[in-house]
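Hi everyone,

Forwarding the result from last night's run.
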Amino acid sequence: MQGLGGKGELLAANYLVANGYKIIEKNYYNRKGYRLGEIDLIAEDPEGKTVFFEVKTRSTKGWDVVPEASVNKSKLEKIFKIAQYFLAERKLMEIEWRVDFIGVIFNLKTRRVSIRHIKYLHL
């Protein structure tokens, strides 16, 4: 991982571990055949559910950015497809899972970081 996005993913992973999650995989994609896309982080939550994370990182001189605005319906559908591929590949189709979002904002003016964790329900 490199650059702003890599730093954001590292901070997101650290945030999750600090909140009782166990990281299962980072930057997962289907290695065989058609590449469906990538999931930034896959983790197990404190209750034992598998959670697929989309992480978006932005920098700003204020707090006026909304990283989650870049996750549209099409992106969410891709995440669900690759999540289902991961579950099928590991023979885990019967487990409970969900897709969450983590937004990481680097404030260049104050040199502070904000992490926003939004839970999505599996449809």
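The mean pLDDT is 87.

Cheers,
N.
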